[in-house]
Amino acid sequence: MSSYFTDLAQQYIDGEWRQGTGSWDIIDFNPYNGEKLASITIATVDEVDEAYLAAQRAQKEWAATNPYARRAVFEKTLRIIEEREAEITEVIIAELGGTHLKAGVELHLAKEFLRESIQLALRPEGKILPSPIDGKENRLYRVPVGVVGVISPFNFPFLLSLKSVAPALALGNGVVLKPHQNTPIVGGSLVAKIFEDAGLPGGLLNVVITDIAEIGDAFIEHPVPKVISFTGSDKVGRHVATVCASHFKSAVLELGGNSALVVLDDADIDYAVDAAVFSRYVHQGQVCMAANRVLVDRSIADEFTEKFVAKVKTLKVGDPSDPQTIIGPVINSSQADSLTGAVDQAIAEGATALVRGATTDNLVEPTVLTDLPADSAILRQEIFGPVALLVTFDGEEEAVRIVNDTPYGLSGAVHTADVERGVAFAKQIDTGMFHVNDGTVHDEPLVPFGGEKHSGIGRLNGETTVDAFTTQKWISVQHGRSFFPF
After folding, report:
1. How far is the CA of 451 from the CAs of 147, 200, 254, in angstroms?
2. Closest by alpha carbon to 185, among 95, 99, 264, 104?
3. What is the pLDDT of residue 325?
4. β-strand 16-18 against 11-13: which pairing, if any?
């Protein structure tokens, strides 16, 4: 594993591994034990420019390559990930503080999305459309946008880098990837190394490990990329969207959430408890789709609460390399401090802590809060950590109002014995995704993924990915003669 952090602690530009030329280094730490994993000299504005120009040069030939030949690269990429799964798991645990369970989930989904990318290489189809003008043939071509800039987050960096990088490449584009500073290897150079070993031509995929303190908006302002795919916070997403719009670029934004899991009065309580605990605490709650809020009908609240709290207390907190650990560290100390502060504020406002987890360095133990005042700030914000909010309601109408009382609209779930009651409930919620009798954390290769309100713009997966990373071009052919009035 250590070789990953030494060999890959570099920029990958125009098919070459090299050091950045910035004046300072990004230090990659293990969030559990503080071990220094790597030191990476950051990329400058000049290197961002070189990366985009390399992608632009390589893309023309790649787009003209037979899609069956492009497909072969992704088939080999999938085989490499399968062969190196144990090593990649160790790197995820070390760099992210992800548990074995979390690494398994991330790698499973990454492979599923790669399988879809294999098919995407052959997906774009043209059309011939009728014309009101005699003799005219309207041809509609689906073509790559050219170059895509990808900015990936720290929570599922391998999956969420691949989720944009692989389909963009499969559809004939070049790519420049900027991983999060806390996960430069898993989210950046590891992805590049796998594609390099799979035979992807040099220059098509470039990785720049850098920071906005060094490059400002250069990554999104650069004239080469036509689409920016960003996954991260709504605050940064708003800025990305503004800059993209001012430069006539498309932005695909997968942003934060404040999802609710709702337990109606006829739900299977034990099953709902299992779904809610997983939806809140998977990967320490550092998931955009996580169930920040657990809403329970008052008629069953006592039983649900007792069982929910009991299950939360069984979650093992500690070393993510221990296969029995469920709750590992959050990504860094600022995140740990932010979570502690938010909980302290909620309790000061009147909330009751049914479970009050301690914070030790980056290890934040689970917390369960209830009796939150209706105006409590924590109810409307994204909580990127292991803190659950239990909220009671009286009847479906009140539940719908509470669920929608947030600036976010990403995911959610409802539990009920009546499936159609659940579907009717889901239709009233302002989210991009909602699940009946399941958890809130789901992503599938064919189903459009994305949010409403502050949770994002656009969709990815399946045909929506084709829409995101290609454009349409109309070419008409006049087989007869047009009439011109002068």
Report:
1. 24, 32, 7
2. 95
3. 98
4. antiparallel
Q: At what angle do helices 67-83 and 157-170 cross, to 10 degrees?
A: 160
Residues whose CB is less than 8 angstroms from the CB of residue 67 and which lie 6 or more positions away in sequence, other chains included: 121, 122, 172
CB atoms within 10 A of CB 63: 16
From the list 288, 382, 396, 452, the catalytic residue is 288
Strand pairing category for 291-297 and 259-263: parallel
Tokens standing for 220? 């999104």
Identify whether 288 is a catalytic site residue.
Answer: yes
**SS3 annotation, the chain:** CHHHHHHCCCEEECCEEECCCCCCEEEEECCCCCCEEEEEECCCHHHHHHHHHHHHHHHHHHHHCCHHHHHHHHHHHHHHHHHCHHHHHHHHHHHHCCCHHHHHHHHHHHHHHHHHHHHHCCCCCCEEECCCCCCEEEEEEEEECCEEEEECCCCCHHHHHHHHHHHHHHCCCEEEEECCCCCCHHHHHHHHHHHHHCCCCCCCEEECCCCHHHHCCHHHHCCCCCEEEEECCHHHHHHHHHHHHHCCCEEEEECCCCEEEEECCCCCHHHHHHHHHHHHHHHHHCCCCCEEEEEEEHHHHHHHHHHHHHHHCCCCECCCCCCCCCECCCCCHHHHHHHHHHHHHHHHCCCEEEECCCEECCEECCEEEECCCCCCHHHCCCCCCCEEEEEEECCHHHHHHHHHCCCEECCEEEECCCHHHHHHHHCCCCCCCCEECCCCCCCCCCCCECCEECCEECCECCHHHHHHHEEEEEEEEECCCCCCCC
The question of whether 83 is a catalytic residue gets the answer: no
Give 327-376 pLDDT, tens digit per residue: 999 999 999 999 999 999 999 999 999 999 999 999 999 999 999 999 99
The residue among 251, 227, 248 whose CA lies nearest residue 239 is 251
Tally the residues of the chain: 486
Output the pLDDT for position 125: 86
Mean pLDDT by 10 residues, the chain (486 residues): 87 98 97 97 98 98 95 97 97 97 97 94 91 96 97 98 98 98 98 98 98 97 98 97 98 97 98 98 97 98 98 98 98 96 96 97 98 94 96 98 97 98 98 98 96 97 96 97 92
Please identify which of the residues 254, 349, 365, 397 carries the catalytic annotation: 254
**pLDDT tens for residues 362-417?**
999 999 999 999 999 999 999 999 999 999 999 999 999 999 999 999 999 999 99
pLDDT for the residue numbered 37: 97
